[in-house]
Amino acid sequence: MSRIASFFKYTIMIILAIVSIIPIFWMISGASRPYEELFKYSNSFNIHLFVPVHPTLQNFKDVIFNERNPFLTYIGNTLFVASIVTAMVLLINAMSAFAFAKLRFRGKAVVFALFMSAMIIPGEVTLVPNYLLMHNFGWLDSYKALIIPSMLSVFGIFLLRQFFAEIPDEILEAAKIDGASMPRTFLRIVLPATVPPLITLGLMTFLGNWDSYLWPLIVINDDKKQMIQVAIAAFSSAEGTDWSKILAASTISTVPILIIFLFLQRYYIQGITMSGVKG
Fold this sequence. Notes:
Layout: H1 2-31, H2 58-64, H3 71-102, H4 108-117, H5 127-137, H6 143-147, H7 154-164, H8 169-177, H9 182-193, H10 195-210, H11 214-219, H12 228-233, E1 236-237, E2 240-241, H13 243-275
Helix pairs in contact: 1-13, 2-13, 3-7, 3-10, 10-13
């Protein structure tokens, strides 16, 4: 019975993996086709639906070396913003989560409840207030508008607090007796013990900023400072949509995420698994 159950389990997993990979494979295949061939075989199920008849790298060249839309500049902008936001989120949210988990201060429960209540507010509701705030600060059309509002993650505080709460208080007391200050204890004992959830939060934050579209579209008008998802959308205009270039640009933008995930997937899966049993 166990063999039959294992067979069905792995069969279902393989089917789900194939279904998940097909759109990615079609994206790469479409990016390698001439525009006139892109939808030529879409109405029939045959090998040419996924394998180009006349493969070409011209779409990638047109995207990378486009003087009107310098795609490499957009990648650099996005990498810069996403990296800084991720680093600041890990630092600020880790300290906040540690305070909620281990420190004693008046009104802690009330403040934490207020933080958690913010999770139910849709992001679209805060777009106008945040835009007006950026305008009043004079941060529109600058990286400050992209970085500073994103440095706090209520979900990140909640996630890390669950892990920090599991660290025995005796370890922190022992460090205090040995003369370690609270910042030193946090850096030397607490953070090394929570590497998987930190990497999980870091990956989620980096991916969220890498795929950010609406907020950069609103606050950034200078094309030289624009983000990658807005740049991809720029290939669609009133004159038409160049799907070949969109697929090529999407393929290029996916590569950094895949590389990062391949190196850190073990920690990411471990962090997600542990978050399901912490409480």
